[in-house]
Model the fold of this input.
Amino acid sequence: MELSGKIIQILPEVGGNSRNGNAWRKQEYILETGGNYPKKVCLSIWGDKIDQFAIQMGEQVTLGVDLESREYNGRWYTDVKAYKVDRTGSENSAPSQNSMPEVSSFHSDTDEDTLPF
Done:
């Protein structure tokens, strides 16, 4: 599932240790969707993806998200976890230098076989 909008708030990062002793960290963001009836959605990013995505206040983003609900003491709680970020309003949307070159054909006009096997 994808959500698009503007980051309007960044909540403080939280962290701790799991029962197994593994360290964890979570950063929550408030995203406001566009349209005639904008909605505010609280989403979370976990672990190293916090630094990898480096989401900033005011950014226009499209997020790949997973939704998960769980029950605790008769109440249901829903998490919105982002796993992918596309910056829609940035100038860095041009293809990178490391992208694959364009190939017009897989056929070669030469008879020489360049494969090593």
